[in-house]
């Protein structure tokens, strides 16, 4: 199975992270469907991008995608997946959501009953192949047309080797980006929580920090 043969759907694709990923995947020649609560808003976003990219409602995008990325706000994450569970059955679902809170001291990881957003997705979608990835990638860099290369590793988590290999290949299509297997779904919490640390780094150093794994 080749990633170039797959249609990539992005639920929540009109937000900064989803829109940035759509931009990069479409630029790499992949077929992309942007999903949103508003199909009209999704169509407007898709029209602003180059390549094979179109807009639809989240439900329509979920139905159209072979690989479906979940890039929605943490609030409403579970409810959306419960609603779309029948449509997502049999599909590869990539959860990219970081359960974070914010206060005067900055960003911090929120507790999740299932352990992580990725594990919550796996619990809600028992008939889907769930993988966690793209948690630590800067939306600012993804959307920056001047950033030709996104120099970061994408930590990929999952219990299905074929599925994690495919998601690693998806990361690899973006210049500078590399998919790295980082463990099973039970290890997703610390990867999602790491985003809070990166936000703190970015604020202190006025940067768009990412992750690089050495000696791999």
Automatic annotation (TrEMBL):
UniProt keyword list: Oxidoreductase
PANTHER family the record matches: DUDULIN-RELATED, F420-DEPENDENT NADP REDUCTASE
Protein name: NADPH-dependent F420 reductase
Gene Ontology biological-process annotations: copper ion import; NADPH regeneration
InterPro entries (UniProt xref): NAD(P)-bd_dom_sf (IPR036291), NpdG (IPR010185), P5C_Rdtase_cat_N (IPR028939), STEAP_metalloreductase (IPR051267)
GO cellular component: plasma membrane
Domain Pyrroline-5-carboxylate reductase catalytic N-terminal: 7-99
Annotated TM spans: none
UniProt GO MF annotations: coenzyme F420 binding; cupric reductase (NADH) activity; ferric-chelate reductase (NADPH) activity; NADP binding; oxidoreductase activity, acting on NAD(P)H
């Amino acid at each position: 199975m080749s990633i170039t043969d797959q249609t990539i759907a992005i639920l929540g694709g009109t937000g900064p992270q989803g829109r940035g990923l759509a931009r990069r995947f479409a630029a790499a020649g992949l077929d992309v469907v942007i999903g949103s609560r508003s199909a009209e808003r999704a169509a407007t976003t898709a029209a602003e991008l180059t390549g094979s990219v179109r807009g639809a409602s989240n439900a329509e995008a979920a139905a159209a995608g072979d690989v479906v990325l979940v890039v929605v706000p943490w609030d409403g994450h579970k409810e959306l997946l419960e609603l779309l569970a029948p449509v997502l059955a049999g599909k590869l679902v990539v959860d990219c959501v970081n359960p974070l809170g914010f206060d005067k001291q900055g960003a911090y990881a929120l507790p999740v009953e299932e352990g992580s957003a990725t594990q919550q997705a796996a619990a809600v979608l028992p008939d889907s192949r769930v993988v966690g990835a793209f948690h630590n990638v800067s939306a600012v860099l993804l959307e920056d047309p001047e950033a030709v290369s996104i120099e970061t590793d994408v930590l990929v988590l999952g219990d299905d080797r074929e599925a994690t290999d495919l998601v690693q290949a998806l990361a690899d299509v973006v210049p500078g980006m590399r998919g790295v297997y980082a463990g099973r779904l039970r290890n997703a919490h610390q990867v999602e929580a790491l985003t809070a640390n990166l936000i703190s780094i970015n604020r202190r150093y006025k940067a768009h920090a990412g992750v690089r794994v050495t000696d791999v």
